[in-house]
Design goal:
Largest sheet: 6 strands, mixed
Strand order of the largest sheet: 1-2-3-4-5-6
Distance between the termini: 58 Å
Strand content: 15-25%
Order of helices and strands: EEEHEHHEHHHHEEEEEHEHHHEE
CATH superfamily of the domain at 12-121 and 143-257: Ribonuclease Z/Hydroxyacylglutathione hydrolase-like
Bound molecules: zinc ion
Length: 345
């Protein structure tokens, strides 16, 4: 006989794995007891700089939960960014575990299989939005810095769509599709425990970056805000994030993130109302001049995501300047309400 536990932490172990790439210090792997085996949620990076490839840290974490590598029967990846997914292929080889990810992670896999195409696409985006030629290559190299930490490109052996109930041990975990930070992002939600495994959808001390990339989500910020509301409706009491320590008061955290994103949206909109501007000009004016390449590319890609939101709300539009760079101009004075929605007229 099995009993469903409402103890939020029973059979759940958080393992912080070191990363050390592009200012990401560590990532959490969560170990969930699954009968006499385990399911792990996210798995960290392949470490080309270490003789064991980073497996020692994974094994030590499993051991702390009372298990060994051979006990891993399933890997759920919240989203296919390399800090959460890089080691998945190696772990599948070693354990025979199945890999469950959202069906949209196929796009990430394609990108990793053709990194040159992805880099060229980024360079084109940056050119269209006014980034100088010398800076373009440097910024588009973000992916190049991550690639050595990806062991192999593996697609999901079971593709998730959201709405599934995963039976893990005696518990049911609902798969909640939460696009925004990544189009193929999922959270796992246990109604009985009131626990959310949030990946990078909800983080304790930073507002998760929401960035635009051609060929992915046309309006990722809108997706993100909708996903936040979908999670808030469930009222999680304990959040286990992809980075950092677990925290409570998810709804308060969500409200703070919503306020932060909408404030940024208003700021960008006001700047465009003052004078038509390119994305590069907006990023330079509104985000303190970023020095490091990964900060600068984040500022540009986040600005692009905010502009997309304003554009699909019918508030701004673009035109090409004589040099081919897009500039954005205001097309409406209709106010946005506190939820970032167009106020009813
Ligand atoms: Zn992450």
């Amino acid at each position: 006989m099995t009993t469903v536990t409402s103890d939020p932490v029973a059979g759940l172990t958080r393992v912080a794995l070191p990363v050390g790439v592009n200012a990401v210090e560590s990532v959490n792997m969560h170990v969930l007891t699954d009968g006499d085996r385990v399911t792990i949620v996210d798995c960290g990076v392949w470490r080309p700089d270490l003789p064991d490839g980073g497996l020692d840290a994974v094994e030590a974490g499993l051991e702390r939960a009372g298990y060994a590598l051979r006990d891993v029967s399933r890997i759920v990846v919240t989203h296919a960014h390399i800090d959460h997914y890089g080691l998945a292929g190696r772990l599948m080889e070693l354990t025979g575990a199945e890999l469950q990810m959202h069906t949209m992670t196929d796009l990430d896999c394609e990108k990793y299989r053709h990194p040159d195409t992805a880099r060229a696409r980024r360079r084109d985006t940056y050119a269209d939005h006014g980034v100088s030629e010398t800076e373009r290559t440097d910024l588009a190299d973000h992916l190049t810095r991550w690639m050595p930490y990806l062991h192999t490109v593996v697609e999901a052996s079971r593709r998730l769509r959201g709405g599934e109930q995963l039976a893990i041990g005696a518990d049911r975990w609902e798969v909640v599709h939460t696009p925004g930070h990544s189009l193929g992002h999922v959270c796992l939600w246990s109604q009985a425990r009131r626990v959310l495994l949030s990946g990078d959808h909800l983080l304790p001390s930073i507002t998760p970056p929401v960035t635009f990339e051609r060929g992915f989500d046309a309006d990722p910020l809108r997706s993100y805000l909708d996903s936040l509301r979908r999670v808030a409706e469930r009222g999680p009491e304990h959040v286990y994030p992809g980075h950092g320590r677990p925290f409570g008061d998810a709804v308060g955290r969500i409200e703070a993130i919503l306020r932060n994103k909408i404030r940024r949206l208003e700021k960008i909109r006001r700047a465009i109302q003052e004078r038509p501007s390119s994305v590069t000009e907006l990023a330079d004016r509104l985000v303190a001049k970023a020095i490091l390449a990964h900060q600068r590319q984040l500022a540009l890609n986040e600005t692009l995501a905010h502009i997309a939101y304003l554009r699909w709300s019918g508030l701004v539009e673009r035109r090409a300047r004589p040099d081919g760079v897009y500039e954005w101009y205001s097309t409406s004075d209709a106010p946005l309400d506190v939820h970032g929605r167009l106020a009813a007229s």
